[in-house]
Amino acid sequence: MTAFIGAGRNLHQRALATADLWRAAQETQVLRDNLALLGITGWHSLLEAYRFFLSRRMTLATNEALLRAPASRIRRHVEAHVAIESREHWQACREHRGPLLIVTPHYGPFALGLLKVCLELGSERRVNAFYDPPQRNPGTACYGEILRKSCDNFRPIFNDRRGGVRALQALRNGEVLTMMPDVYEVNGQCLLVPFLSQLTYAMSGTAFLALKSGALIVHGYVESSDSGRVSIRFEQPYFMQVTGDDDYDIYRQTSRLLHALEGQLRRAPAHWVYLSQLRGRLDAGLAQVDGPGALRRLAGQLGRHLGIETREEILYAEH
């Protein structure tokens, strides 16, 4: 009887392992199909798919370790293993006395990158992070716990009914705010913007906050290496271009944010959390322009909005 039970357990474990392998194989194929949209094919796509799984596992393991570690050990780890590239860009951000808007997708070990920013600024500035509350996205629950015990200058701002007001107040107070523009919710703040030579949804909130606060904007990306070291790459900071037409300015800035994301994905796609959803995001945008009549109507709307006429110009106006 004992042998029979043991054999049953072994079969169950093998079945679970086979199911895991099957799911991994399916996800790998989805990743390779999506990587092809970025021009990455052949064995290069297989390598990037492997890097995606490695990056995801390392991020999860890092968050779990940070949750267990005391604040002093976290600070020592960040100082020893997290580096900022493009120091001149980060220095320009630190020297700016007005509001600072750090734009980053859900990319790599975000918590470690945010820790580095908070510890670098110290008592100079308060750092606010805008993200979904844990009730909506359980994956964000670790951010507040990790940051609060390690940094006195951190404050979470949840994406809820009052979150936008708090975020704008923080910027107008000259504080730092991080935003993640690679998620969307189809509502009145959602726009269709060019992305990978197609159209996809993007939220206008980041551009709205930049417009109303006059914040300095910088794009940042947190990447982990195979050895476990983490680097933060900041691009050249800039101010949002303003023409006086708020709708036009918000649309143009939102397009610029997605264009920056596209460039980063072409450079290093494996760290993007939503890489396996890339095709679905593009399909969601195309669903809104299904058929030539709908496409012509959308092209006309965008053309009037941007002051241009042809669909090709619309798709590449901000590129």
TrEMBL record:
- Pfam families of this UniProt entry? Lip_A_acyltrans
Q: Which UniProt keywords apply?
A: Acyltransferase, Cell inner membrane, Cell membrane, Membrane, Transferase
Main location class: membrane
* Organism whose genome encodes this protein: Mangrovimicrobium sediminis
Q: Where are the transmembrane segments?
A: none
Per the record, its GO cellular-component terms are:
plasma membrane
An annotated Gene Ontology molecular function: acyltransferase activity
In its UniProt record, which GO terms are filed under biological process? glycolipid biosynthetic process
Q: List where in the cell it is found.
A: Cell inner membrane
Name listed for the protein in its UniProt record: Lipid A biosynthesis acyltransferase
Q: Which InterPro entries match?
A: LipA_acyltrans
> What domain of life is recorded for the organism?
Bacteria
